[in-house]
UniProtKB/TrEMBL annotation:
Pfam families per the UniProt record, alphabetical: Acetyltransf_3
Organism this protein belongs to: Streptomyces hoynatensis
UniProt-listed PROSITE patterns: GNAT
Protein name: N-acetyltransferase
GO MF annotations in UniProt: protein-N-terminal-alanine acetyltransferase activity
InterPro entries referenced in this protein's UniProt entry, alphabetically: Acyl_CoA_acyltransferase (IPR016181), GNAT_dom (IPR000182), N-acetyltransferase (IPR051531)
Length: 180
C-alpha cells in the first residue's frame, strides 16, 4: 500500500490517496470506471468480455511488471479510481506511460493529481526509465490539467490509437523521473 498527498486541494494541504496493487477483487472498480462519461475520450465503454480481458492484464502487470496497475482509494478505504504505469516505445526509446481514471463522485478533489504524483514516485523508484509520459486526448481538459498540476511538461500534440483502430489526437506530456 502506498499513501500520498497532493500539494493542492482543500483544507489540510491536499488530497490524500492510497494506491494498492491491482487484485482479482478489483473487477467491480473497473466496471465502475467503464461508465460512458469516463470513457468518452477512450473510444467508449467496453464490453464485459473486454473488461475481463483488461482486468486479467492489470492483474498480470501488477504481478510480473514491467510497471503496475493500482487501485486508488481514499484513506477511508473507499474506492475512487484507477492509475498505473507501463512500458511503451516512444520516438525511439522505451519510456513509462501512465493513465488514470477517477470515478465521478470523487472528481474535482485533487485525487487524480495525487494519484499521478504517487505513480510518478513509484515509477521513479524503479530506476528503469528516465521519463514518464501521459497522452490525454486534447479534448480531455481535466486530464490535461492533471498533467500540468502533477509536474508534467507539455511537449505538444501527437496522434495515437486507443483502443487500437480508434485514432485520437492527444497531448504528449512528459515528466522527468531521473537524471541522465
Amino acid at each position: 500500500m502506498y499513501e500520498t498527498r497532493s500539494g493542492r486541494g482543500g483544507p489540510g494541504g491536499g488530497s490524500r490517496v492510497r494506491l494498492a496493487p491491482w487484485a482479482e477483487g478489483d473487477l467491480d472498480l473497473l466496471r465502475q470506471a467503464n461508465a460512458p462519461e469516463l470513457m468518452t475520450h477512450l473510444g467508449g465503454p467496453e464490453t464485459e468480455e473486454r473488461l475481463r480481458e483488461r482486468h486479467a492484464r492489470y492483474v498480470a502487470l501488477s504481478d510480473t511488471g514491467p510497471g503496475r496497475m493500482l487501485s486508488v482509494s481514499l484513506p477511508t478505504g473507499e474506492p475512487a479510481g484507477v492509475v498505473g504505469y507501463w512500458e511503451r516505445e516512444w520516438r525511439g526509446e522505451v519510456v513509462w506511460e501512465t493513465g488514470w481514471t477517477v470515478l465521478p463522485a470523487f472528481q474535482g478533489r485533487g485525487i487524480a493529481t495525487a494519484a499521478a504524483l504517487a505513480v510518478a514516485a513509484l515509477a521513479a523508484a524503479e530506476g528503469t526509465h528516465r521519463y514518464l509520459h501521459a497522452y490525454p486526448s486534447t479534448a480531455n481538459l481535466a486530464s490535461n490539467a492533471t498533467c500540468r498540476k502533477a509536474g508534467f511538461t507539455l511537449l505538444g500534440p501527437c496522434d495515437l490509437e486507443y483502443p487500437p483502430g480508434h485514432p485520437v489526437r492527444c497531448n504528449d506530456w512528459r515528466r522527468t523521473l531521473a537524471a541522465g
